[in-house]
Design goal:
The protein has about 300 residues and is mainly α. It is built from 13 helices and no strands.
């Protein structure tokens, strides 16, 4: 499989996660159940892959304690927030807002002292990125959704990923546990953490289409995408893997328009372009970084995410 084909397959599977969430919601599944099932199925895939690769799950209490924090901010919380957000916001827009994670990571890096003071290009990227979010929701328009609970939930999910990456860089990565086993353990932990959300969900009539959608979401868009992303990082380096992140909003917007007939407005398209340009500028290299107090959080994520 060539690099371009592998990248395309990964972007399609990963970016389709927002579509499967929307279909699951439309077919009767609640946010709590979507979160629980995708964590459970994703964990099952990763455990099987880890065991097949001869990797053992962590055994020490300290690692499992840190996994609780990582699983909450990287899986249980953002998975739930994305499902809540997509109750009122289109799946394509959700994919675009997911692309703001590097912007939040940069802000966290500045707060922790792991980032150099921003120069012109990266400062402009940060401003452009969040300006793109404003353009998408147009808060100056009557009835716009920027301050709605759905939009805020989606932004909160992206910020939660950034918090998780900062925490994992400092407390989980590079400590001797194999990546597949570590991610499998993390999704197992997230499955347990997402269980209480089931009690808060009401009952609804679920169709077989909804069940199929959440199964695809858990197995392919959560578990398998991590494995493919991990393989791309190992075979081609983190830069190639990070490039996939720029394709996810394009995939989510395209699938939302084609499959769900979501409106593909000029404002959303322009906002997506501005967000991606902003993210690209924030990743610009400005010279050797000073010794950080925390590891760099702007690189490609290892844990499974939409």
């Amino acid at each position: 499989m060539t690099s371009a084909i592998r990248m395309g397959v990964l972007a399609l599977l990963w970016g389709s996660g927002f579509l499967w969430i929307k279909i699951s919601l439309n077919q009767g599944l609640t946010p709590g159940w979507i979160t629980f099932v995708r964590c459970l199925l994703g964990a099952a895939v990763l455990v099987a892959l880890a065991l097949g690769a001869g990797q053992r799950l962590p055994r020490d209490r300290a690692t499992w304690g840190r996994l609780v924090v990582a699983a909450f901010f990287c899986n249980a919380l953002p998975f739930l927030l994305f499902s809540i957000g997509e109750q009122t916001v289109d799946s394509g827009v959700a994919g675009v807002l997911n692309a703001t994670t590097p912007l939040w990571s940069l802000l966290i890096g500045l707060a922790l002292g792991s980032e150099r003071p921003l120069r012109a290009a990266r400062s402009a990227g940060l401003v452009l990125g969040f300006a793109g979010v404003l353009l998408i929701f147009a808060p100056w328009s009557h009835g716009s959704g920027l301050t709605s609970w759905g939009a805020l939930a989606l932004l909160g999910a992206s910020a939660s990923y950034a918090v998780a990456f900062a925490y994992m860089a400092r407390h989980l990565t590079g400590r001797g546990t194999a990546p597949l086993a570590l991610s499998a353990a993390q999704l197992l932990t997230a499955t347990g953490l997402s269980t209480p959300a089931l009690a808060a969900d009401g009952s609804a009539t679920v169709t077989w289409t909804g069940i199929l959608a959440v199964v695809v979401l858990g197995i392919f868009a959560t578990g398998l995408t991590f494995h493919l992303n991990y393989r791309m990082i190992a075979d081609e380096g983190p830069t190639a893997a990070a490039t996939v992140g720029y394709l996810l909003p394009v995939v989510s917007v395209t699938l939302g328009a084609l499959v769900l007939e979501e409106p593909l407005t000029a404002r959303v398209m322009a906002g997506m372009a501005v967000v991606l340009v902003g993210v690209g500028l924030t990743r610009a290299k400005t010279g050797p970084a000073r010794k950080p107090r925390a590891a760099d959080t702007s690189g490609p994520p290892l844990p499974a995410r939409p």
